[in-house]
């Protein structure tokens, strides 16, 4: 086996991305036993753990707010708080000596009050009505209220000696005047508001009222979608995207694929259909119009995570247009199409977030590592999107959606989150195209190899050669054990996976320049080896 990865002393454990559909593909390091598409790996505490992507039957259900306070005004007791001028011996309400019972009740006139025991008092015959006292502020001698019904009795007579807080009438009058002024301002404000409201209502009555509910329904839009829009891409690609439903003895799952020939050849991920190949299961292809037909595996390559299946009893299918993934630029717009969580024909959009990401996806049984020279995108890719197309804004397929990054939940014993976090990975179509063509032509795929075993270096300064295969491409180029490869052409190499991804992005027989250390360069003609499929 070439391109093995023995761990260097002191190396940290690697973090893996996992495929995004319901196949049984495993990340390196898992047990060799096939895993049901229902099963998901349990992350170690604090470890970023990838998620085995394709969605399983029975998607998780998704898992949403207040009152107003009011303030009340402070008691407005200032207006008219003093006794009215001309009344006998008045005091300020609430001041010392104030008798609350002297406050007129409903229906009473000022000066009317029930006696303490409810009967008219026996003293205080009526004198001259309403005359002021002889001294300023003193009660008039004859001017005391009499014993008519409602007049005060023996106790609590206004102006009796001992009541403090008497103030000259002039001050009381000033307060009253001030109170009247305030009241006038308030009334003026209300009157202005009423006048404004009446004017507004009069103006409103003269205006016509429009209502959206009374408008006629707009006609159906028949114009074509703008070129280069997500809408135009979706209209072009959706008829050629299929859902693949896979059942086997170990369980069931589903993924996506896209039609590359009118007679039913479909490209998808190996990990989408792997359980059907190894578990004696079956595959159904479901098209955009709901048509469902059986499909069979033409061939598959676990090392590149590419497979081809053939839909049965179909013809004249619309096929996709393949683009050139070598022309992609970071920031370029992209569209992802597939069947996440069994939602067929789902369209999401984003950009090229990065290129040449070395990503480990699922292998056949845990011992077969797939290293992708991946396109990174922020277009939402979720379980069930695996195998679906990643498309440029011209409607050309430039990648196969394959894996997502899934952070650990951070809690021991809890599963990692299983949805898009804006970091998805796709196989470049140029690499997948070559593999798919080999599978269609021969039923098998070949793998591009360097003929060496590598491992990470301390400090991620390159890929260290551990062993060189006799007669392999590396030996022929003069590469020796202990060499550290730092570049392939102009591409920087900082890990063993980066070197493998760079090699596998090429076809067998391609010539590349490799930099060893800082200044030594060798030219290598890359070799090949058949992919063994169990």
Automatic annotation (TrEMBL):
What segment(s) does the record annotate as region Disordered?
1-170
- Statement: the UniProt record of this protein carries the keyword Ribosomal protein: no
Alphabetical keyword list: Hydrolase, Membrane, Protease, Transmembrane, Transmembrane helix
Regions crossing the membrane: 176-200
Q: Name one GO molecular function term.
A: serine-type endopeptidase activity
Which domain of life does the protein's organism represent?
Answer: Bacteria
Q: What residue spans carry the Low complexity bias annotation? A: 58-82, 98-138, 144-165
Q: Which InterPro entries match?
A: Chloro_Bact_Ser_Proteases, PDZ, PDZ_sf, Peptidase_S1_PA, Peptidase_S1_PA_chymotrypsin, Peptidase_S1C
**Gly residues composition bias: residue spans:** 87-97
Which ranges carry the PDZ domain? 439-520
Checking SUPFAM superfamilies in the record gives: PDZ domain-like (SSF50156), Trypsin-like serine proteases (SSF50494)
Task: List this protein's GO terms for biological process.
Answer: proteolysis
The record's section on PANTHER family has:
PEPTIDASE S12 (PTHR43343), PROTEASE DO-LIKE 8, CHLOROPLASTIC (PTHR43343:SF3)
Family statement drawn from the similarity comment of this UniProt entry: Belongs to the peptidase S1C family.
Q: What is this protein called?
A: Serine protease PepD
